[in-house]
Design brief:
The structure holds 4 protein chains of 4 kinds. By secondary structure, chain A is of the alpha+beta class. Chain A contains 16 helices and 19 strands. Chain A has a 6-stranded mixed β-sheet. In chain A, strands 8-9-10-1-11 form a 5-stranded mixed β-sheet. A 4-stranded antiparallel β-sheet of chain A has the order 4-5-7-6, with helices on one face. The longest helix of chain A is centred in the C-terminal third of the chain and has 18 residues. Chain A is globular, with a radius of gyration of 23 Å. Helix content of chain C is 74%, strand content 2%. Chain C has 13 helices and 2 strands, in the order H-H-H-H-E-E-H-H-H-H-H-H-H-H-H. Chain C has a two-stranded antiparallel sheet. In chain C, helix 10 runs antiparallel to helix 13. Chain D is α/β, with parallel strands linked by helices. In chain D, helix 5 crosses helix 6, helix 5 packs parallel to helix 8 and helix 8 packs parallel to helix 9. The longest helix of chain D has 18 residues. The chains are: A alpha+beta, B mainly alpha, C mainly alpha, D alpha/beta. Chains in contact: A-B, A-C, B-C, B-D, C-D.
Chain lengths: 584, 340, 329, 369
């Protein structure tokens, strides 16, 4: 699961889910944009796609300083620890992984996303064609901020660092695949304290070639390689703990200063060669991050256009989002659209075994009311599928054919008129409380008798992730780490993923038919698998209804009037700083 | 509010018996020959502010505890979510925050519930919590104060240090940290937490921090009384500690205790509202004033929502003001010297 | 004097110690696992175990407490080997949330809280004491009645309501002031003051009520004292009687209250910070308490307690310095 | 400073005959919530230089209010002052605060009852005396300090140079009163009002203080008003005596007249209620029964009538008409306000009062003076 800023996760439980759409400055109402993701020629790009320089942004111009407002500092900038999407969006300015996503703005305002080679010349070579051995070759002319060349061994060292227990905050995909074990650092604990500089399963051939060998097939490796785990770290520059604040630059910008919790300044890295980079730009002279501006303050500053060169990753203050959403002048200075996140009502299938009750919940649930309580359309669009519209192969369907506001009468019929007593658990926040009260009232119309249990918001995911929990249904969100069904359906709906605690499959859905289907699709090449995931999504919803999809999480944030090149990145779910420029 | 929550029992120049002081006190004392109780009642009756604050307090009681009846007459309840009266973004339709003949004070943003009903039910919550806390805190304070004052010595030393210790606790910070912990420890899982349990967490926090002021006050009074003739006399005639405490000491400290109580109630109302404002306090669906203000502050920038802020914040203000004024008047009446 | 101070400080240390024990015990009694807090959702058991090992979370609580206190006085080390982290004294641990040294968080949020508290304190004393003293001197006049009424209003006004009204009137309604943004005083004193003017006013006007009530009552009390009559009988002019004699004698309780008020402000600026969106220590505490970020909560509780305890000592010393009758022994 | 003292003394010699202080028909009323308090109601008296007037009465009889009225220390907002008060020829009733202020401390000065509360607790004794001196004398601080030490020495405080830097709470009661006197006399005032200056002191110290005052009076020829409820003190120091009751003067005359042949039942009561050294221990004291009257509700007629053994009630005038202060025909200069016919008063005095050992001994004491 891709993590949004932790604060944002808390906010979703508390305030509003913010986001949706993806168009650049369309300035219209922004609702109903989700069709734009549906067609994709090719998800994985070629070596040609991977060549620099990146096509100029329309109107792109060099110079100036862009200021980002943010409440908290980036908890991590160390490539081994970066996981939260805003961290990686920023890290994307500073260092480069093996592969990356190339987002092309199409004339109709939509975005075409393609995985391309970043440091590597292409998105990886499936050496044996069985997805067990992946080989990456580095481009020529790659340099660090001090002018020294980027070597394959540095990437191996970067991956090795990710094995260190101290760096456990980052994603674990590649480590687990290399180790062939979920507990990836049981034996190899990184290059520290005498450990090998190259992790087991990785081989470095000269300065340009790095190979990853896995015990089992992992066709998603090109996508996993787009995470910061594969960013190069020269051993000599590894400052360990301090690296988290000031990583060594291989990208278009380098860190000039970083005062924790106060500010960070990025300036141009003169040794970065645009001809080696297919996705990044280097328009502003510098970026400045100012920390300590909360969501209300940030919204007010951007709303008044106090400084036209300002931008933020943060969403709009939920209390004001409606007013800003409906103000055409402000909408022109905003990015809005769906992110990779989807919010669900998980039905605990261990407890609610009657599929008709689950279907009745799907039918009776008033999603419009839920959306309204979260602040209306800016919070996100009403969902009906497990997979987000940003997923490759996404296909819209509605398994029950009821209006978004639900159909309590129909649900009542399905329940046979009997009263069903269920327990709803929710994270204890002001909006969480209101939503709970609303759910109780709305579902009562269909004959449900709902008991409300407040759970400490911070422990919420622990509680619902406990297999033995005593609740019948609860809300949670899921965001894919890369835009494939393989990071959505297997982790959340595969019965084999269920453990005693820390479950993502918090519907505890365990179905043989679905498991077989998952195994089949997992072996397919990425391009073929995409539509199959969508089909499975529809099958699960129609036949088993283990969840009630609620909203496709919406991103909605403002930026200053002098900022150009802003669009909602499908990769991060927020603005992409690497494309921004100042208009004057 | 400040770090501690000790109800204010100092000063205040209320109206009332002000002019007396000009005459040398010895002379003033001579010609007022009424009993203290009668005198207090006379002063209280004559004090217009006291009268009106008392009326306000009574009205608030009636409104808060008669809320179900008012709900019946008004034709609305505090739970119904009028989502049809909200736009797609959850904002109330119509004027201000949805003020109409149907909903006199408008409806809540987001949920669409009637603000007037939420408010008077919220008042009931606030007042219940404050009263129970005040009764408990004063009782606890009196007991500790009497023990410390009466027995003196090392018992007094320990209690006095403990009071200092409690007063050094940053109340607000501690309450923020402790309330969720109480909730976790006391309530088992998979059970809907009834409103009263929730409220009792707050009451518990108020009890823990609220007794110190009274204890200090009573301790001081008791130390003063302990050596007085009538107590000495009772002791000399062989009366036990219980007799002395209940028959000799308590009757003589009831006035400051009453004043303490009258000042503790508004202090707790304000503290409860502050905690709820910060999101620590009673939960939905139990209505609460501080939480309403919190929502109003968060949304005050939206068109017409100032009304929501004014109504909810004003309610807290009036509630505290009325209780404060009444407490002041009571204190002035019971202890004219305090209002020099 | 010296012996009094020593005893007072020892007592304060005992209080601090007791509070640290209670706070530590309470916060660590929370059922939530700090490791979960540290890696949010998506935390696998491996990661949790590693966090536990690194923060010694599996040690008995008294060992953890001892280590924590040791860290404050002599510093401590987290982890071992190449990634060993040094946390020099005074070490308040690392934030469960961001892994940042708590000391760093304190260092950057304390100035905000101190700015709010000191500024508000100065304003509230200026406004409150002046109003109270003048009300007493002009007793029965319109000014006196106004001061009494306003102080009654102030005493009943919830800070969050008043702060919101100020914000609405000066920022959102009229746009006279921009939305407050913290600027260090060292960078731009004017911008600093501009950012804090509303927080100051919102706290000062409300707290001034207490000072003016106390100031008025104290002045009235001293004005009726015999020595004031003596001073007038000497032929002193009224202004001198009021200021040199009456105010001098009334100042002690006012100073006491002022000291306690400052301690309270430093520990209780939370609501103001919350309304104005300032990342002071108070807001850090609210967030930390909500996130069960215990090291940060612990630190803020300790710091707030230190403020209150120190304020108490300072008040006692000031009392002795101001009143020749008080002997500190 | 001796030059100043001598000059002042010389100046005083020339104005010997006319009374320095004249009070005519003085009334002081306070408005309170409970009604109007008639604290002083039509009082007349005068004092010459070098002479001492004793004002006697219970608490609440209006003694202290009278003295504060002379200094103009009542709050004009709550107190209404009527009548004429002439100090050294200046009428001080209705005089501007600024002019009054210049007279206070210099022309008229006051020694207060309780020196502990009447001295500022936070200032050193010296500072307070220096302040009093510098208000009326434009001298440097060091000169004023010398004067303060001199005054402390003069009132009999040992080691004055050291004591000058001490705080009131570091002084004993008697020393404090001496310091108070030093402060009051630092400007050589012509009129000294001493409000129960010895009440709080033990007998030995009391005697010393009275002695001191007498000495100082001899030296400076000041007029002194000695307010007290202690007839012993009065008999010791006063030339004239004014007895007050319920805000009015009930008897006025020379010390010998009032103390040896009192004509007012209240004065009799006062004399009877005082124990003396010469009284026998077995003999009961005879306190005046009842309480002093409420000044809001002064009894109709003679204010003393509810407590008066000899009151002529019913048909008599005592509870109907307010008696006027009238001369005693048989005793020149002796004034009394009583409805009892003079003959009857003399009879009672001779047959009941003078036979009591109290008054006997008291009279003897006065004789000895």
């Amino acid at each position: 699961m891709k993590r949004r800023n932790v604060a944002a996760i808390a906010a979703t439980l508390s305030a509003a889910l913010i986001v949706a759409g993806c168009s650049k400055n369309k300035g219209d109402d922004g609702a109903g944009d989700n069709g734009q993701y549906e067609t994709r020629n090719s998800l994985i790009g070629t070596a040609e796609d991977s060549k620099g320089p990146a096509p100029e942004m329309p109107g792109g111009r060099k110079g100036g300083t862009i200021t980002f407002l943010q409440n908290n500092d980036f908890a991590h900038l160390d490539p081994a620890k970066v996981y939260v999407s805003t961290f990686s969006a920023t890290a994307n300015l500073i260092y480069r992984p093996l592969t990356t996503y190339k987002e092309t703005l199409l004339p109709d305002g939509s975005i075409e996303m393609r995985l391309v080679g970043d440091l590597a010349v292409d998105p990886g070579k499936n050496v044996k064609n069985d997805c067990t051995v992946w080989e990456f070759t580095l481009k020529d002319g790659l340099k660090y901020e001090d002018g020294s060349p980027i070597k394959a061994a540095d990437i191996a060292y970067g991956v090795a660092r990710a094995f260190a227990p101290e760096a456990a905050a980052g994603p674990h995909y590649i480590q687990q695949w290399l180790a062939g074990d979920k507990n990836y650092n049981a034996t190899y604990k990184g290059p520290y304290n005498g450990g090998a500089k190259v992790p087991p399963g990785v081989t470095v051939d000269g300065d340009k070639k790095i190979t990853f060998t896995f015990n089992s097939p992992h066709c998603d490796m090109p996508f996993a390689a787009a995470m910061t785990t594969t960013a190069p770290v020269p051993e000599a520059k590894d400052t360990k703990e301090a690296y988290d604040s000031v990583p060594f630059s291989s990208g278009p910008y380098k860190i000039k200063s970083h005062t924790r919790g106060t500010s960070m300044e990025l300036v141009r890295n003169e040794h970065w060669d645009p001809s080696t980079d297919a996705t990044r730009h280097q328009y502003p002279d510098s970026f400045v991050w100012k920390f300590g501006s909360d969501i209300v303050a940030t919204t007010n500053r951007l709303k008044t256009d106090e400084d036209p060169n300002m931008a933020t990753y943060a969403g709009v203050d939920p209390a004001q989002s409606a007013a800003i959403w409906t103000d055409p002048a402000l909408r022109k200075r905003s990015i809005a659209g769906s992110t990779q996140f989807v919010w669900y009502l998980n039905i605990n299938t261990q407890r609610v075994t009657d599929v008709n009750v689950r279907k009745a919940l799907n039918i009776a649930f008033d999603k419009t009311h839920y959306q309204q309580l979260n602040g209306g359309p800016p919070a996100g669009e009403i969902a009906s599928t497990v997979m987000s519209p940003t997923t490759a192969g996404y296909k819209k369907f509605d398994a029950f054919g009821v209006p978004p506001a639900g159909d309590p009468e129909k649900a009542k019929t399905l329940l046979g008129g009997k009263s069903v007593k269920l327990t709803y658990a929710y994270g204890n926040t002001p909006v969480g409380q209101q939503i709970a009260a609303a759910i109780k009232e709305d579902l009562a119309k269909a004959g449900f008798d709902i008991e409300l249990v407040a759970v400490d918001a911070e422990r919420y995911y622990d509680v619902i992730g406990d297999k033995a929990n005593k609740y019948d249904f609860y809300i949670s969100g899921w965001g894919a780490d890369w835009p494939l069904g393989s990071t959505i359906i297997p982790p959340t709906l595969d019965g084999r993923e269920i453990t005693d605690q820390g479950n993502y499959n918090s519907a505890y859905f365990d179905n043989a038919e679905v498991k077989t289907e998952i195994d089949r699709i997992m072996k397919l090449p990425v391009e073929q698998a995409a539509p199959e995931w969508a089909k499975l999504d529809q099958k699960i919803m129609t036949d088993y209804a283990p969840v009630v999809p609620l909203l496709y999480d919406g991103a909605f944030s403002l930026y200053g009037s002098n900022i150009g090149g802003a669009y909602l990145s499908k990769v991060s779910g927020c603005v992409n700083p690497a494309s921004l420029f100042l208009k004057s | 509010m400040s770090g501690t929550m000790e109800p204010m029992v100092t000063e205040t120049a209320g109206p009332g018996v002000a002019v007396m002081a000009e005459i040398p006190e010895a002379e003033a004392r001579k010609f007022v020959g009424l009993s203290p109780g009668k005198l207090a009642w006379r002063r209280l009756k004559r004090d217009k502010v006291a009268f009106w604050s008392f009326v306000t307090v009574v009205v608030m009681f009636v409104v808060a505890y008669g809320a179900p009846l008012i709900s019946l007459l008004y034709g609305k309840d505090y739970t119904t979510m009028n989502s049809d009266l909200l736009d797609a973004y959850g904002r109330p339709l119509g004027y201000l925050n949805g003020v109409s003949g149907e909903h006199w004070l408008g409806i809540q943003i987001g949920t669409g519930r009637d603000v007037f009903m939420q408010m008077i039910y919220g008042m009931r919550t606030s007042m219940t919590i404050s009263f129970v806390s005040a009764v408990g805190a004063i009782f606890f304070g009196v007991v500790v104060g009497i023990i410390a004052g009466y027995f003196g010595g090392w018992i007094d030393a320990i209690i006095s240090w403990f009071i200092d210790f409690m007063l050094s606790f940053p109340f607000l910070i501690f309450a923020m940290a402790a309330v969720p912990i109480f909730a976790n420890v006391v309530v088992g899982e998979a059970k809907e937490v009834p409103g009263w349990i929730n409220a009792s967490f707050l009451i518990m926090v108020f009890l823990i921090f609220g007794w110190t002021g009274t204890a200090r006050l009573v301790r001081g009074q008791v130390i003063g009384l302990r050596e007085r003739e009538f107590v000495e006399a009772a002791r000399a005639s062989g009366a036990g500690p219980m007799h002395i405490i209940f028959r000799q000491l308590l009757p003589n400290v009831w006035a400051p205790i009453l004043v303490s109580f009258s000042m503790a109630v508004p202090a707790f109302i304000a503290a409860e509202a502050a905690l709820s404002f910060l999101g620590i306090g009673v939960l939905e669906p139990t209505p609460d004033l501080g939480r309403l203000v919190g929502q109003a502050v968060a949304t005050m920038q939206l068109d017409g929502m100032w009304m929501y802020l004014l109504v909810t914040g004003g309610a807290v203000f009036l509630l505290v003001l009325a209780f404060n004024l009444f407490g002041d008047a009571l204190r002035d009446a019971l202890d004219p010297k305090s209002s020099r | 004097m010296f012996r009094f101070l020593i005893r007072r400080i020892l007592l304060a240390v005992l209080t601090l110690f007791a509070i640290s024990v209670v706070a530590f015990g309470l916060f660590f009694a929370v059922p939530a696992d700090p490791a979960t807090t540290m890696c949010a959702r998506g935390c696998d058991q491996v990661t949790k175990d590693q966090i536990h090992a690194r923060l010694h979370l599996d040690d008995p609580i008294y060992v953890q407490y001892f280590d924590y206190m040791k860290g404050i006085f002599v510093g401590r080390e987290y982890g071992a080997g190449d990634w060993k982290r040094d946390c020099p004294a005074p070490c308040l641990g690392f934030s469960f949330r961001t892994d940042e040294p708590v000391m760093d968080i304190v260092k950057r949020s304390l100035p905000i809280t101190v700015s709010i508290a000191i500024g508000a304190w100065i304003f509230e004393l200026l406004i409150g004491v002046t109003a109270g003293v003048f009300a007493a001197l002009r007793r029965g006049t319109v000014f006196d009645k106004l001061a009494i009424s306003l102080s009654l209003v102030g005493a009943a006004m919830p800070v969050f309501f008043f702060a919101a009204i100020l914000l609405y009137v000066f920022v959102f309604g009229t746009g006279i002031l921009p939305f407050p943004e913290y600027v260090p005083i060292s960078k731009n004193p004017l911008a600093w003051a501009g950012a804090f003017i509303l927080p100051w006013l919102s706290l000062a006007l409300i707290n001034a009520a207490n000072h003016s009530r106390l100031g008025r009552a104290q002045m009235l009390e001293t004005l009726s004292e015999d020595f004031i009559r003596t001073a007038r009988a000497k032929g002193l002019r009224k202004s001198k009687v009021s200021l040199r004699h009456a105010l001098r004698a009334a100042i002690n309780p006012i100073v006491t209250m002022a000291g306690l008020s400052l301690g309270g402000l430093l520990g209780g600026a939370v609501i103001t910070e919350s309304v104005f969106g300032m990342q002071g220590l108070g807001m850090q505490t609210v967030t930390a308490a909500r996130e069960l970020n215990m090291p940060l909560v612990m630190a803020t509780v300790l710091i707030a307690t230190v403020f209150i305890v120190v304020a108490n000592i300072v008040v006692d010393v000031a009392y002795a310095a101001l009143d020749p009758r008080v002997r500190l022994s | 400073m001796t030059t100043v003292t001598e000059a002042a003394a010389a100046a005083k010699d020339t104005t010997d005959e006319a009374p320095y202080l004249e009070v005519e028909n003085l009334t002081v009323r306070f408005k309170t919530e409970d009604g109007v308090v008639r604290a002083v109601d039509g009082v007349d008296f005068s004092v010459q230089r070098g002479r001492t007037l004793g004002i006697v009465g219970e608490s609440g009889s209006g003694k202290s209010v009278t003295s504060l009225a002379i200094l103009g220390l009542h709050n004009p907002k709550s107190a209404t002052i009527g009548g004429r008060v002439s100090v050294g020829g200046t009428d001080v009733v209705g005089l501007s605060e600024a002019r009054l202020r210049k007279m206070r401390g210099k022309d008229m000065s006051m020694i207060f009852q309780d020196p502990l509360t009447s001295l500022h607790p936070y200032y050193k004794i010296g500072t307070q005396i220096v302040e009093a001196y510098r208000i009326h004398h434009d001298v440097s601080k060091s000169d004023a300090r010398k004067r303060a030490i001199e005054m402390l020495d003069r009132v009999g405080i040992p080691e004055p140079a050291k004591r000058v830097d001490q705080y009131p709470h570091e002084f004993s009661g008697g020393m404090r009163q001496r310091a108070m006197i030093a402060m009051s006399l630092v400007n050589n005032p012509d009129l000294i009002i001493a409000d129960e200056p010895t009440t709080a002191l033990d007998v030995t110290v009391q005697a010393q203080i009275l002695e001191l005052l007498a000495d100082l009076q001899r030296e400076f020829r000041s007029a002194i008003i000695m307010i007290t409820h202690d007839l012993g003190v009065v008999s010791q120091v006063a030339d004239d005596v004014l007895v007050m009751y319920g805000g009015r003067s009930v008897e006025y005359g020379s010390a010998a007249q009032v103390l040896r042949s009192p004509h007012h039942p209240y004065t009799w009561g006062l004399l009877n209620s005082v124990p003396t050294l010469y009284g026998s221990a077995e003999e009961d004291l005879n306190p005046i029964s009842g309480n002093p009257p409420s000044l809001i509700n002064i009894p109709s007629g003679c204010a003393f009538n509810p407590r008066c053994k000899y009151a002529m009630l019913g048909d008599g005038p005592c509870d109907k008409d307010v008696p006027q202060l009238a001369p005693v025909a048989s005793d020149e200069g002796h004034l009394v306000s009583c409805h009892l016919p003079e003959g009857e008063r003399i009879t009672i005095l001779n047959e009941e009062i003078l036979t009591s050992s109290h008054l006997q001994s008291r009279s003897e004491e006065t004789d000895g003076e």
